[in-house]
Amino acid sequence: MKEIIAFIRPSKMAATKKALDRFDIPSVTAIPVLGRGNQRGLNTALSGIDVSPRLLAQGKVQGMKYIPKRMLVIVAKDSDVEKIVDGIIQENRTGYIGDGKIFVCPTDDAIRIRTNEVGDNAL
Hints:
By secondary structure, this protein is an alpha+beta fold. Helix content is 25%, strand content 24%. It has a single domain (2-122), classed as Alpha-Beta Plaits (2-Layer Sandwich). The protein has a four-stranded antiparallel β-sheet, covered by helices on one side.
């Protein structure tokens, strides 16, 4: 099992949910979060401006402190991880700074509290 943690734009949430539904991935936790990455909080895709990566690297561009994102948490079977990650990428890649990030982490076990099922059966 793997835990997939994805940070995406809030505007891409509906399309991402549809993609996960196409792959029969019904379980996802979506949490509104605030944060910033390498772009230093500057949301160029929403502001309509283009910022040189060189200027960003030099710290010469000021941006917002934090921008809204959605954090998705999905625990999936190992065999489903690639299609989930590919689906998230396909729906969220715009080519602009701030498209998001995906982390894939190992998960040792899962337990369904109601039935006491464990492992993949608990998913």
